[in-house]
Design brief:
The complex is a heterodimer of chains A (119) and B (109). In chain A, strands 2, 4, 5, 6, 9, 10 and 11 form a 7-stranded mixed β-sheet that branches. The termini of chain A are far apart. With 119 residues, chain A is mostly beta strands. In chain A, 0% of the residues lie in helices and 46% in strands. Chain B is mostly beta strands and 109 residues long. Chain B is built from no helices and 11 strands. In chain B, the strands form 2 sheets. In chain B, strands 2, 4, 5, 9, 10 and 11 form a 6-stranded mixed β-sheet that branches. In chain B, strands 1-3-8-7-6 form a 5-stranded antiparallel β-sheet, with no helix packed on it. The radius of gyration of chain B is 13 Å and the shape is globular. Chain B starts with a strand and ends with a strand. The chains are: A mainly beta (119), B mainly beta (109). Chains A and B meet through strand 5 and strand 10 of A and strand 4, strand 5, strand 9 and strand 10 of B.
């Protein structure tokens, strides 16, 4: 079946502007995760949803970052007043369920990412 | 929170040799340890994972070992091939994934 998809694949914006990044998870996956990956680094957790609710948003760096998942499927990551330091690849992942047992249903599958460049 | 350290940051091996990448983690509650392969400009792809009730897992040329007492786990790739060249990330989980900083593996033909 179709994997996780993200749009746009690339986004160039100017400092101070607002951007929205979209993630379409694998059909049937109830858990959705956002990560940020800077050049030469591993992905860094931002927020995850179980269904429509944000189960853990402890990774969001500040209040300029916000994410929604109103119908429990597609999610949008929103960044207000962008700064040059926000430039990175924003990765989305989904899993069948979310939990802490490390079961097969919790395996995370990643999308291709959105490369954000703030000038 | 969890902290994952990964070594080495770069690794070059001759085709056919073995490669080993090591990770340590800090949170003894972590119970799931996946390894992802990421080619340049591509998404991370899960290659193997291990859960805390298992000490070793093997899938063809790839194996992972876990030492919960010492809080470290390792990726072993045998009979390396040029297409194994990529960045490899380890991760640990208690809730959400915490990733290591990555290892750039280069397999020289």
């Amino acid at each position: 079946g179709a994997g996780v998809s993200q749009t746009p694949s690339n986004k160039v914006t100017e400092k101070g502007k607002y951007v929205e990044l979209r993630c379409d998870p694998i059909s049937g996956h109830t858990a959705l995760y956002w990560y940020r990956q800077s050049l030469g680094q591993g992905p860094e957790f931002l927020i995850y949803f179980q269904g429509t609710g944000a189960a853990d948003d402890s990774g969001l760096p500040n209040d300029r970052f916000f994410a929604v998942r109103p119908e429990g499927s597609v999610s949008t990551l929103k960044i207000q007043r962008t700064e040059r330091g926000d430039s990175a690849v924003y990765l989305c992942a989904s899993s069948y369920t979310a939990g802490t047992s490390g079961g097969l249903r919790e395996t995370q599958y990643f999308g291709p990412g959105t490369r954000l460049l703030v000038l | 929170g969890e902290n994952v350290e990964q070594h080495p940051s770069t690794l070059s091996v001759q085709e056919g040799d073995s490669a080993v990448i090591k990770c340590t983690y800090s949170d003894s509650a972590s119970n799931y340890f996946p390894w992802y392969k990421q080619e340049l400009g591509k998404r991370p792809q899960l290659i193997i994972d291990i859960r805390s009730n298992v000490g070793e897992k093997k899938d063809q040329r790839i194996a992972v070992t876990l030492n919960k007492t010492a809080k470290h786990f390792s990726l072993h790739i045998t009979e390396t091939q040029p297409e194994d060249s990529a960045v490899y990330f380890c991760a640990a989980r208690w809730g959400q994934l915490t990733f290591g900083s990555g290892t750039q593996l280069t397999v020289l033909p």
